[in-house]
Write a structure and sequence with these properties.
5-stranded antiparallel β-sheet; elongated; Phosphatase 2c, domain 1
């Protein structure tokens, strides 16, 4: 029996369909007409939606169509706005005006309808506008990719070796550019500066605040690494650089690996969780404003000790405040605390917190940046270095 052979044109068409629909899933299609549609309408109409909506169904529909048209139009440049208006005009002419042009070639008479011409011109103008907007978006995306790579260089790729301690860390962004920040900086006297922060806002604005914070923190560590001085300098920089909306939550600590002493300041940041070797949980923080709100900063430096076997979990609010796909339940600070209380190695605790988080959001895109850092002090004494 002879096997059937698919003709080459059909194979090419099948390959095209596979490539064109690659990565498509039903959840993305549902999101187009649910969450994405609502967000798009909110963005498009925020400058024109001050008037209350009519209560009548038809009038409310016409009101929303009008706001959507104005929103789409005024998001375009004047020239593109003119083309958009022309495309709508030609579409309406195709809907309401009919007729034909008689063309006589001598042997044959043709009738060319107006409606197809109007619709074709409308469609062509809309495709042209779409192409222009896509080109702009590609250019912005390329610039954001460069900014993302530069920002990635500000974050630690590896943790400096600290005898007797292990680290696990991860960083996820809601947009191309993130506002979370963390770092591990070894100091000349053997101590390690541990920093985690969350800049206000999202995207490029938050990334700029994060870059300012990184440069300021590096300078502060060179001048005086004590937590009070570091926080004071960063707060002063943010207060003088941005507006009232430019602020940053921060947890900054100096760790002495030999003794386990941890001097820290928590400025408006979610309290890190210190799990003692016996299972008790302590919160490292006492409230306070984020940095950049007012001068002086206000947070007080405190001291604790990491004993052998203790575990420290630091995170940003993008972890605890993420909601499930139904929008009914947050991951919650209590769940982070509960997962921390189980204990284990830094890698184990880090991984099962993120696994629980991934189950909670069920593949939904992040709405806020997420940073998680877990530090564990070995329960076994560290042998002294062998002299050369």
């Amino acid at each position: 029996m002879r096997a059937s052979v698919t003709p080459p044109p059909l194979r090419r068409f099948e390959r095209f369909v596979r490539d064109y629909t690659d990565g498509l899933n039903t959840r993305d299609l549902q999101r187009l007409f649910q969450g994405d549609a609502a967000r798009a309408y909110a963005v498009l109409t925020r400058e024109h939606g001050q008037q209350p909506e009519p209560k009548d169904g038809l009038r409310r529909l016409l009101h929303r169509i009008r706001l959507s048209f104005l929103g789409l139009s005024y998001k375009l440049s004047p020239a593109r706005r003119f083309l958009f208006a022309l495309s709508v005009l030609f579409f309406l002419m195709g809907c309401f005006f009919d007729g034909a042009i008689q063309v006589d070639t001598g042997t044959t008479r043709y009738a060319v309808g107006f409606s197809p011409v109007y619709f074709s011109v409308s469609f062509g103008l809309l495709v042209y506008l779409l192409a222009l907007e896509l080109v702009d978006r590609v250019r912005v995306r390329d610039e954001l990719q460069v900014a993302r790579e530069l920002q990635a260089d500000l974050l630690p790729r590896e943790v400096p070796p600290v005898p007797g301690y292990s680290f696990a860390h991860s960083y996820r962004t809601a947009n191309e550019i993130g506002g979370d920040y963390y770092d591990f900086t070894p100091l000349p006297d053997g101590r390690v500066a541990i920093t985690i922060g969350d800049a206000s806002g999202h995207g490029m604005a938050a990334g700029l605040v994060m870059a300012i914070a990184n440069a300021t923190l590096e300078t502060a560590l060179d001048l005086d690494p004590t937590p009070e001085r570091v926080v004071s300098l960063l707060n002063r920089t943010l207060c003088r650089t941005g507006s009232r909306r430019t602020f940053m939550s921060l947890f900054f600590a100096l760790l002495d690996p030999a003794t386990g002493r941890l001097d820290y300041v928590c400025a408006g940041h979610p309290f890190p969780l210190l799990r003692r070797v016996g299972g008790a949980i302590e919160e490292l923080g006492c409230g306070g404003f984020p940095l950049g709100i007012r001068e002086p900063a206000g947070p007080v430096c405190k001291t604790t000790f990491l004993e052998p076997g203790d575990l420290l979990v630091l995170y940003t609010d993008g972890l605890a405040e993420a909601v499930n796909p139904q929008g009914t339940e947050a991951f919650s600070f209590d769940r982070v605390r509960s997962l921390t209380s189980v204990g284990g190695s830094a890698r184990d605790v880090h991984d099962w917190i993120l696994k629980a988080f991934d189950r909670h959001v069920a593949g939904e895109p992040l709405k806020d940046d997420l940073t998680l850092v877990v530090l564990h002090r070995s329960p076994f004494p560290v042998p002294p270095p062998v002299p050369l």
